[in-house]
Amino acid sequence: MPAEGIAARPHSEILTFEEITKVVQEAAGMGISRLRLTGGEPLVRKDLTQLIRMLTEVPGIEEISLTTNGHLLEEMANSLAKSGLSRVNVSLDTLDPALFSRITRGGSLERVLRGIAAAEQAGLAPIKINCVVVRGINDQELPELARLSIEHPWQVRFIEFMPVENLQDWGAGFPAVDHRFISVKEIRSQLEGFNLVPENGHNGNGPARIYRIPSATGTLGFISPIGEHFCGECNRLRLTADGNLKPCLLNSVEIPLREALRGGEDIREIIFRAVSLKPLGHTLSEEIPDTHRTMSQIGG
Prior knowledge:
Layout: H1 17-29, E1 34-37, H2 48-56, E2 63-68, H3 73-83, E3 87-91, H4 97-103, H5 109-121, E4 128-133, H6 142-146, H7 148-151, E5 155-160, H8 184-190, E6 197-198, E7 209-212, E8 219-223, E9 238-239, E10 244-246, E11 255-256, H9 258-262, H10 268-276, H11 295-298
Helix pairs in contact: 1-2, 3-5
């Protein structure tokens, strides 16, 4: 998130709950069965639990999950579970309270940990912990973060840093642009002492490659969109808050949907088009994507 924040969008440009539900109804009729609510930060959307309840009633939808920074999770975990949310992913890049505050521009590690505990108690499980590994920031903490999976039934997921509208100078004390990336291969090498065992057949519908520390309660996941990309297995479409479909997170292609939806047009052809435009693979090795949106505006 830029230090100056991001310009607010007028309500007229943002999809209503009814419009989101309509898109999901059409998508579910075409075979999509799992939803994830991302952001920005989805828990700041007013009456989010109402949207979740509406989406749970769509025939064909089997699971609704949510990715959050965790700051509002302690207060909302019970209501989210009662509304029909299945589980949560929580962003947690460090276990150092001071560094956490710097990375998140004032966030509270203690508050997020309380939120994770509340989510677990509310049954929003299995909980996944998302850790974006950045050289010079948190790469020295990998063993400590991995140990979370020993004590808790969580999937701790190590994710490669993705160059999506975030290649500006981050300020004093943060690494230079060309020093931030660390590959999943190197991440795994730093955890060799744990004698990781592959969890064959348990990768589910997501991009993570799953391992377990012997006798651990939880698992470790490794997500490599760049070093060992999974484009051939990608089954995701992203619906942006302002009504565009993104076939690929890592390029700039967006298919407008909002006006057709508001005009009463059949949007199934637009969804088909978005699927057909999913690329064979991203081109990050050749160029940096010009997405026009920061990752905090797209959601992972």
